[in-house]
């Protein structure tokens, strides 16, 4: 197999592989999946929420998640470097997309360094998740299986089975957020109610929705690299319709869950600002400013977490 190892680094680029380069490889500045642990904490009953063991387990799970994501994005960068998609996607818009966040393409890490890092993170992540399960007060089988699936799928997102290249990217993006909300909640409580599941889906939809804008922007480079996403399979117009449908699905879940009795009356009312932000990024995306729409979608996800955390804390406080 021939690798297209295109580097966009300038003549002064360093191959030192310093801590900053590894931090960029691990994408430590992208914390959106980790916010699910705040939601988990807010969903807990007050007696469990303030227990010292709860903070210890959530801290251990947080480290496990960070390490697994580091492995996932490390392998993703290596694959994108080899097939040339990162050079194609970042080369035309390096200023807005911060080329330094791709250390292989920028020339601040070698492929060998990145591989060593990704494999080390894979092993450490698996060990940390096993330790999290062992330390948990509850171990429902479905949660253990779901945790294992999330770890395996993360590592093979762009490596091994290369799930994101086989048409599973959008499913993975929402699935990881759902899994990493339900698993720690179940490890702390032993079960998950319908309302917890609804909030987990709303949370998981956030990374998927802003990921769809990335896919829109990257469609040509991904298509050339053989990466299958909805954006690479359909026309730009059809993909805009798909993004609108996925956005509408989240809004319908928010409203419909309350109407169906799966969520309390206050749930859609609390998330009205998020609905407004969703409409805003749709309009901006339809007008062609994809990266701005993506930024608003990211902010909408983070606002969702803030509102749900606050609302759950108030609701459980009133109930107690």
What's the layout of helices and strands?
Layout: H1 19-25, H2 36-43, H3 46-49, H4 52-83, H5 85-91, H6 94-97, H7 103-106, H8 111-135, H9 141-155, H10 169-189, H11 194-225, H12 230-233, H13 236-259, H14 266-270, H15 272-286, H16 290-319
Helix pairs in contact: 2-10, 2-16, 4-8, 5-11, 8-9, 9-10, 10-11, 11-13, 11-16, 13-15, 15-16
Structure description:
It is a single chain. The protein is mostly helical and 320 residues long. It has a single domain (20-319), classed as Farnesyl Diphosphate Synthase. Helices cover 74% and strands 0% of the residues. The chain is built from 16 helices and no strands. The chain has helices at 19-25, 36-43, 46-49, 52-83, 85-91, 94-97, 103-106, 111-135, 141-155, 169-189, 194-225, 230-233, 236-259, 266-270, 272-286, 290-319. The model is unreliable at 10-15 (pLDDT under 50).
Could you name the key traits of this structure?
Farnesyl Diphosphate Synthase; 320 residues; 0% strand; mainly alpha
């Amino acid at each position: 197999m021939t690798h297209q190892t295109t580097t966009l680094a300038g003549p002064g680029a360093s191959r030192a592989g310093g801590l900053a380069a590894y931090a960029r490889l691990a994408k430590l500045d992208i914390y959106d999946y980790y916010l699910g642990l705040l939601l988990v904490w807010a969903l807990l009953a007050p007696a469990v929420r303030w227990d010292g063991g709860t903070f210890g387990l959530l801290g251990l799970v947080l480290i496990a998640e960070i390490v697994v994501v580091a492995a996932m994005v490390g392998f993703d960068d290596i694959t994108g470097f080899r097939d040339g998609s990162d050079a194609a996607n970042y080369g035309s818009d390096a200023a807005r997309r911060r080329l330094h966040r791709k250390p292989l393409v920028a020339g601040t890490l070698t492929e060998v360094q990145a591989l060593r890092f990704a494999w080390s993170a894979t092993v450490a992540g698996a060990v940390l998740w096993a330790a999290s399960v062992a330390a948990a007060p509850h171990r429902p089988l479905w949660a253990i299986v779901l945790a294992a699936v999330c770890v395996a799928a993360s590592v093979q997102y762009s490596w091994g089975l290369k799930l994101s290249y086989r048409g599973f990217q959008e499913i993975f993006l929402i699935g990881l957020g759902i899994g990493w909300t339900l698993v720690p909640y179940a490890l702390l409580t032993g079960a998950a109610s319908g309302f917890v599941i609804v909030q987990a889906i709303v949370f998981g939809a956030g990374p998927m929705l802003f990921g769809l804008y990335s896919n829109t922007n990257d469609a040509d480079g991904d298509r050339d690299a053989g990466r299958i996403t909805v954006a690479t399979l359909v026309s730009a117009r059809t993909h805009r319709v798909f993004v609108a449908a996925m956005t509408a699905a989240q809004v319908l879940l928010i409203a419909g869950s309350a109407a169906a009795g799966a969520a309390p009356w206050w749930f859609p009312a609390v998330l009205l600002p998020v609905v407004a932000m969703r409409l805003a990024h749709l309009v901006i995306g339809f007008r062609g400013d994809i990266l701005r729409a993506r930024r608003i979608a990211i902010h909408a996800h983070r606002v969702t977490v803030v509102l749900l955390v606050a609302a759950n804390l108030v609701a459980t406080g009133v109930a107690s």
